[in-house]
Amino acid sequence: MNARVRRHARPLDLRRGLIDMNHGSGGRATTQLVEELFLKAFDNEWLRAMDDQARCELPPGRLVVATDAHVVSPLFFPGGDIGSLSVHGTINDVAMSGARPLYLTAGFIIEEGFALADLKRIVDSMGRAAREAQVAVVAGDTKVVERNKGDGVFITTTGVGVVDPALAIHAHKAQVGDRIVVSGSIGDHGVAIMSEREHLSFDTRILSDTAALHGLVAHMVRAVPDIHCLRDPTRGGLATALNEIADRSGVGMRIEESAIPVRPGVRAACEFLGLDPLYIANEGKLLAICPADKAAALLAAMRMHSLGAEAAIIGEVVSDPFHFVEMETAFGGTRMIDWLSGDPLPRIC
Amino acid sequence: MKFIDEFRDGRVAERVARAIQAEASSGRSYHIMEFCGGHTHAIARYGLPDLLPDAIRLVHGPGCPVCVLPVGRIDTAIALARDFGVILCTYADLMRVPGSNRQSLLAAKAQGADVVMVYSARDALAVAKAHPHREVVFFAIGFETTTPPTAAAILEAQREGLTNFSVACNHVLTPSAIQSLLDSPEVRAVGSVRIDGFIGPSHVSTIIGSRPYEFFAEEYEKPVVIAGFEPLDVLQAIWMLVRQINEGRCTVENQFARAVTREGNRKAQGLVQEVFELARIFEWRGLGDVPYSALRIQGRYGRFDAERRFGYACKRVPDHKGCECGAILRGVKQPQDCRLFGSACVPDNPMGSCMVSSEGACAAHYTYGRYRRGVAIAQRQAAGAS
What we know:
The complex is a heterodimer. By secondary structure, chain A is α+β, with helices and mostly antiparallel strands.
């Protein structure tokens, strides 16, 4: 320990210091950053070994791997930050197979001049999120790019988990007659982010819903092992997730507008920005498709869990040669819910 | 949500739909033009045609701000951002509208041009204040709703002595467009477009009031009902129009009385008169050259006029050959009559402006699926996908 302290003339200035090119050189400055920042936040036996890789035990089952790059702007937003998001996002991708996530790796691309204080906030938040999810960050990498060649910090995480081979949850498994369930209100994350965007700041009490969903998923597969599909409707929102499943499964979907939970604040923000909550991103919600006769049991199980307390059945899978998603509007008409095209753009008048 | 849900109540909608059904059972048909893209959007989004009897035919009008901009104006916006080195601020929908050679502001941004999406003219002003050493141009588009904020921004720029802010003015006038439609050969002579009445604009009318439409009711004998953008507003307006037509009346009625008065917003009108004057001629997509149908910045505010400042002139560029946006904007054709619709022209790859804005008739038809009524279109799309 003492030998390590002597390697660095003075500790990192985590209050006023800035990232410079040396921090990405792979030399002493990089080691100092790893030891004084990342190791402290993620502390575990694999990182402490300071090897170039982690050797991990896996319980029996099938290996599940997912990777996700996080480039959110702003880096800090109501309800979370890029750190917690980069943990939750990847854990959720692993969990949507029904798997239990076990390990994460993290790659950081940091822009020269980025404040060490902000980096510490982000890394601490990642550490906290990982501990709460009982997932260890076992390996990582840091690169620094010149000023103006990055947007503060980009974080790529890869998650590894194990799934019971008896589970077969896939996007192509939806069957005609299945019920569609969402775990709670939609659009919270996207609206929280938009409320902080440059040129667009507005006051809202909506917080991002960023959360790790594997606890809820474990609860769900215990109650109903033959869930057909699971998706976390992130970018593109619920509408895009439904279209993806309809497309892969070769079915249509029919949902009911009045059954979809949307918070009043999200509805209001979408109303005045001219956006549709169905296309707004979520980071702590899931969409499940299960046989009709299991829907009540699944819903009851979800509502027992804190992240599924507002779960609702929103529609059913139907036969449709064009794989369209249609919605019965609260008004009594029917409209099609298309794929998102481009970025959601606000209307003019 | 208060003041919203009341206007989206499905049970009330059922009752109004029954009233329309009863009123429209005279055996004749009713061709009603909704002028505004906002109405087109509401009609498609809430599936209103499902609630209407077959006797009622809704015809889309040209009231979509980005749809009516001719290709030449889009090219001008792109040139300002790319060749004049300015920071170009504009409303979001405009970013994706295709100009010549498959260019758009979004593509120009990817190529390095400074294009900023703003929500209001004041946001553009804030960009100018934040970048005092750059020329900032607000590419202003829209009907009378968005004109007063542009005037206010110019006045504020003058008060604060800003020297790097200017406005490329493309503000257009609703009454001129309606008159141009009513005077068009398709409506007057050929009779290929039948318009029995208008659903009058919602937000535009909060500014100009209901009085400007009285001319159309009296001179052209077309009933007008000014309606809000909520689905119940639109349904009620349709019922009111059918009743007027049945009774042989031609008056301006105001369904949107909660926001529109006969005289409109005098203060906003004052701002517009202070800063703008009528432009002698303006080229519209679909309508062609329409005299006195747009605004330009008055000489005394000339230093805030990007056209004078950069000395550019808008070129005339024809629409894409297969694109029917022009005919669709005049109500001559429906989106599904265009052979590009749903195949070459889709929201991800728009060929014409009507497929870009959600207020555009093609985008509304495509996105909300009214086109499913035409099986041929769905098959064409399926063939394109496979």
